[in-house]
Amino acid sequence: MIFTSLKNLIKVGSKKSGEISFNANIKEHEVEIMYKSDKGIISGKVERYHKYVDYKHIYDKFEYACKVKLSSEFSKLALFNSFTKKVIEFKDNLITAKIGNARIAKQRENIDSTELNGKTIALQTRTSNSMIALDTKKEATWYFKNDTMPYRIIQHDLENTIDIVEMPIIK
């Protein structure tokens, strides 16, 4: 799942789920989730969401970071380790997060350079957590917990050319 510090509506879905889509309305300490199925609209709440929204707490637990300078216009960041491909995509003012080939979430947000400050996206899988932070210096920083595998940040610009940046571990 993707967790974002932006307290707006998030649309969550997967290519495998077809018509099924989820809407998670983030509140201070809980998330309301609604999704469509054959049985109509199902809604529910996810409690204890605050432990994923507390980014200072999450940040303190990350021991390593990768940082990359972004081009003046960019549309996609791809994060790789040996087993998993994680992609943050920026297109038509939508932020889309992907893990593998499944679309995890979309967040409508302005990505002009003056609006980048404070845009933080945390990625959670069953095995690891990581966090992407964007700032007004056009930098993306990926925070993660261990360096058991080499990490790379690949940036795709709007013209579909690829910059590959091999990032050393920053301790």
UniProtKB/TrEMBL annotation:
Name of the molecule in the record: Uncharacterized protein
Species name: Helicobacter bilis ATCC 43879
